[in-house]
Each structure stands twice: as C-alpha cells, then as structure tokens.
Write a structure and sequence with these properties.
The protein is an alpha/beta fold. It is built from ten helices and twelve strands. The chain is globular. The chain starts with a strand and ends in a 6-residue tail after the last helix.
Length: about 260
C-alpha cells in the first residue's frame, strides 16, 4: 500500500466554506483562507477547493475566491467547479493551482480529459466522479454517475466510467458518494472498493466521513489511496494531526 493522503475539502458558495448533507441543506462552516492556512499548519497532504455552484449556475470558477486561498496554501492545491475547457485549466494553473478537477465537463466532453492530460500531464488532472446507488430492479446501473452537483442522472455505470477516464489519461479519481455525503455515517465502501479495484490510478474516497474508523475503513476495506473529508475538520470534530496519528497507530503508512 502506498502512503495515504489526508485531504480536507473546501466546498465554496458565495465565497464561504459551506457543508451540507447529500449535496443539499448547506450551512456556513468557515472562512476559506483561514481554513486553508489552518489545514496546512496541521499537516494536510493536499487541499481541494470546489466552487460547487459554478456548473449549476453555468459560470466559470470564481478566480478571486481561488486566488485568496492560493495565496496562503503551502501544500498541493486542487480546484474544481466551472472548469470546462483547456483555457480554464491554463488560467488556474498559471495562478499557481497544482491540479484541476473536472466532473460534469468530463462526462459531457470525454475528449477534454485526453486533451488536458496531454497538455498538462496526468499529475495535474483529476476527474471527479459523483455517484449514487440505485435499486437492483430500477433499470439503471447499481452504481450510477450523477452530474451538476448531483442534480442530474446520467444512466452511466460508475465503474465503467472510472475505467474510461483512466484510459483517457486522468491521474486520479476523486470519488464522492451522493448518498453518503455529509451524513457522517461512513464512506460508501462498496462504491469506493469497486472503483479502486477496477483502476490502477489513485482513488480518493469522499463523502460520509464521521469517525477515525471511517478513514481507516476507506483505505483498508475500500482500498482508497487518499481520504477526503470536510465536516469533521470544518467543525473541529477531528483534527488532521489526530487523524494521522490514528492511522499510523493502525499500521497505515501516511505522509
């Protein structure tokens, strides 16, 4: 097992960090600059910034929000939300962003993944995949890709999509369970493991972290290469240092 990364996520709305449940019922969490600086001091391995309403509102990423965080981060920094072209990616990378994350744009234009990988390199590209579970007799895939902040179903099989974006050239997959998001009931281990076993690139588990044990389960049972969390860090329930010490005590190799 490679070294496991711990990644706080900043979901941004109206310039503030917010957090909800199942992508809805958002509440204010904290200031993004303050959060980013704190997480860097505490030992975060990376930081993810998601402009969560950019695609829904049919607009580009708010660069002024990104810049404020960019100015204080000291760890690798990924940005997603509202990115739909090579030019969008170049603008962010030129600002100092380490990675760009695309989700809806990848589904709508798969060729963009290939073009971005070729231009910027795999290490700068993340494909975010939001998934949900369907009933076995629904006529839809058991694990289905959803887009536009989980508002739109695609009918696409999640595991097959993960394999395709790997072939197209993404460096990693950020996998979020819409069903588990914000619940603090644990990551969707079935979904995480299904994707991790289907691809060779790193898979970041996202959605549902509520306890230290959940982090451990995501990397041992779910086979994730990294764990992303928001609520437990934003509201002070678990500190990054505590998470790292716990995983280390359980024999997990961390950064």
């Amino acid at each position: 097992m490679n070294k496991i990364r711990i990644i706080p996520c900043l979901d941004i709305k109206d310039g503030r960090v917010v957090k909800g449940i199942n992508f809805t019922n958002l509440r204010d969490a904290r200031d993004p600059e303050e959060a980013a600086a704190t997480y860097c001091r505490e030992g975060a391995d990376e930081l993810v910034f998601l402009d969560i309403f950019a695609t829904v509102q049919n607009r580009k990423t708010r660069l002024e929000w990104v810049k404020k965080v960019c100015d204080v981060v000291t760890v690798p920094f990924a940005v997603g939300g509202g990115i739909s072209s090579i030019d969008d990616m170049k603008t962010l990378i030129d600002m100092g962003v380490d990675k760009v994350s695309i989700n809806t744009a990848a589904v709508k234009t798969p060729q963009l993944v290939k073009e971005a990988s070729k231009k910027f390199g795999k290490k700068r590209l993340t494909v975010a995949i939001d998934g949900k579970k369907n009933l076995a007799n629904s006529g839809l895939p058991r694990l289905e890709v959803v887009i536009k902040s989980g508002l739109e179903s695609t009918g696409m099989d999640l595991v097959e999509w993960a394999k395709r974006v790997e072939e197209l050239g993404t460096g990693e997959i950020l996998l979020t369970s819409r069903d588990a998001d914000g619940t603090k009931d644990g990551y969707d281990i079935e979904m995480t493991r299904a994707v991790a076993e289907a691809v060779k690139i790193p898979v970041i588990a996202s959605g549902g972290a509520g306890t230290l044990e959940h982090l451990y389960e995501a990397v041992t049972i779910g086979k994730a290469s990294a764990v992303l969390a928001a609520s437990i860090f934003h509201f002070g329930e678990i500190r990054i240092t505590e998470a790292k010490e716990y995983l280390k005590s359980k024999g997990i190799d961390i950064y």
